[in-house]
Each structure stands twice: as structure tokens, then as C-alpha cells.
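Team,

Forwarding the record for the chain on the shared tracking sheet. I've put the sequence and predicted structure together so nobody has to dig through attachments.
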Amino acid sequence: MNFVKMHGAANDYVYVDCFAEPPPADPAALAAVIADRHRGVGGDGLVLVMPSSQADARMRMFNADGSESEMCGNGVRCVAHLVVSRGRAPEGVVTIETGRGVLSLDVARTGPRTSRVRVDMGPPLLDAAAIPVTGAGTGRVIDAACPALGAEEPWWRECGLDPRMTCVSMGNPHVVFYCRDVARVPLESVGPRIETHPIFPRRVNVHVVEVLDRGHVRMRTWERGSGITMACGTGASAVCVAGVLTGRTDEALAADLPGGRLDLEWTPGGHVFMTGPAEEVFEGTWWGG
């Protein structure tokens, strides 16, 4: 099976062009093996780029633990780049079918193996039931108490954590917390505890955010099914929405993630737009099972 290793702001996946390759029989099992950074190709998961009757291509995305996710913002940018670079669609506006629905992306080539891509991420889902978050009523979850955190722990003070949560769905569920210093948050232990808490019946992506000014934040992410990642496009989109809802940041936002910067825009009641890079790293052939 031939594949392409790609990343968007260092959020890296193994991509299979199923226009040219038969789709794997068990992509969930393959994802867990091929994404292994020691015994496989390595990555945050597996993405299949498939024909679609509704769009230029269809994206299926599997986390590193084999679970299938509805969407990946950095991943969908790479899918759009691949579709254009392999001649499946012309440069410019490309449509990709995802678990979130059909998304529209504007692809601008920046090199033989790179593009800068602007994604219409669609409107955020804000009602608790749609995210979903249980025990939070039917309204919005904005600066609300978070049962997943429990009683105060010493690290709260070390990083200046505000333990209140704001929840957003970008087709997949996100919870956002604000703090003074994201580097001091023990995300490797706190992330999985929050991800799997019963109030999040579909698990949740966890983000900690440091506001640098009203148009600029620094963030770190624990992704459900993959752990700590270098970037999360849907998460950065959720952070943009959360900042506007809580009054902390403006409608246009630059988000610095460990893997690079993403540019976001959201006007309440409208769609979220995300702009960032897509880059091919190498191509290869997978001989594993």
C-alpha cells in the first residue's frame, strides 16, 4: 500500500490516496499499527482520501488508537492539498466530504509539496446536547464548573488555571480552559482524565489556552484517541469561538500551537474560518498487515 506522510502545523498523519489505492480492509486496525512512532510509519493517525459523490473527495480520519473521528482541521487542509497536487481538482476552491458534512477549502500552492489552505469550518455547535456534554442542561456551556477537574490541585496555582470550562463542537467535541502559563499544565495526566470523564459521552478534546492579547493566544492540546499533539485545527477553531463567547479574545485570532500558527476568524452566528499550512513530508510503501 502506497502512502504519503503529511502534516499541517506538525499535526501529522499517514494519508492513503484511495483514488489510486484500494482502501484498507480494516482501517481502524491499520491506524493503530501504522501510526506507531517506533514500529510503524508514525503519526497522529491515518487519513483515507476517497472518491465522493458529493464533493471533490471524501475524508475518513482515524486516530492513533484506531478510533474514527468526525473531522480534523489540520488533516482536511492536507487532504485538499493532496487532491489538488495529484490533479484530482484544480487549485482554488475544493470541496471535501467529512463527518462534519461537506467543507469548502481555498487551496493556494506555495511550492511543489506545500500549500496554504483556508477552510470554511462551518458554524460551531454550542448547545450542550449537540456537543455533547451531559448534566449541563440544554443551553450553552460557557465558563461553567467542570466536574472532571474535581477539587483544587497544586498545579492549578502553578499555571494560574481558571477551572471553568467552555465547550464547543466543530463536528467533534472540545473543552477549553484558560490559564496563565500553558507550559505548566500537566496535560499528559490531566488530558486523559478529562477526555474520558462521564460528562463527555463521546469523549472530548482538551485545550488549555494562554491569552497573550485580544488577538493572540498560545494553546496546547490533548486530542481524544491520540494524546498530546503538536496542533489541532478543530481545537484552534473551538478556542477562537470560546474566546469570543467568554469575552477574552476578538473575532480574528492568531493561535500559536507547538507545531506552528493558525489564523482563525469567527463572527457570532456565522462560520469559523481557519487558515494554515499543508505540507508533504515523504512518500512510501507500507508492507505491514
